[in-house]
Design a protein that fits this description.
Belongs to the Nth/MutY family. Its cofactor is [4Fe-4S] cluster. The protein has helices at 3-20, 33-42, 48-61, 65-70, 73-80, 86-104, 112-115, 123-134, 144-153, 161-171, 177-190, 209-213. By secondary structure, it is mainly alpha-helical.
Length: 217
Amino acid sequence: MKNADLENRYGAVLNAFRRVYPDPKLALRFENPFQLLVAVILSAQCTDERVNSVTEELFKKVKGPEDIIRMSDEELENLIRPTGYYRQKAKSLKGCCEVLLKNYGGEIPTRMDELVKLPGVGRKTAAMVLGNAFGINEGIAVDTHVRRVAQRVGLSDHDTPEKIEQDLMKHIPRDLWTWFSNATILHGRNVCKARKPNCGECPVKEVCRFFMKSGGV
């Protein structure tokens, strides 16, 4: 695709999403950066609705990293069991909290290079926490929804979240990175669904490669 065509596609998507998703919010419920970090770690391979159900009870007992450290493995695993992969997630949470207490006084670091060193934290998690808890645009969180939308619409031809993120960051203004990720997650969840995309109601169908290849159905 010519650079001009790609820029036009990005421009059309940004304009449409600004209109439809002016102030997108994460579905995960949180009151502070620590809660968001925990919720995003638990959200791997799990729906936001289930995570919210689990954290509603978890955060009654857990106010900070020291509370997770004091908790027995069995108790923590039982509390987060509904999110799946609970043993690995419990291990990640405990390891993460240990590093937070040892190196950061229990506070959440506000730099990407420090966040991604925490157990259980990759670029997606770090970008979500930085953008939504601190208002810092250090990356674009590429979850399954963002990945699907970017590939279908034609914003990236890559398969890995890392390379898709690099493509997106080249064309989207930095101050829009968190907004774009949140908006695209909503679009992927509500319109550009994995099994049956609702192309008829899609505000970007006119520039969507998937829509055009499917014959405009």
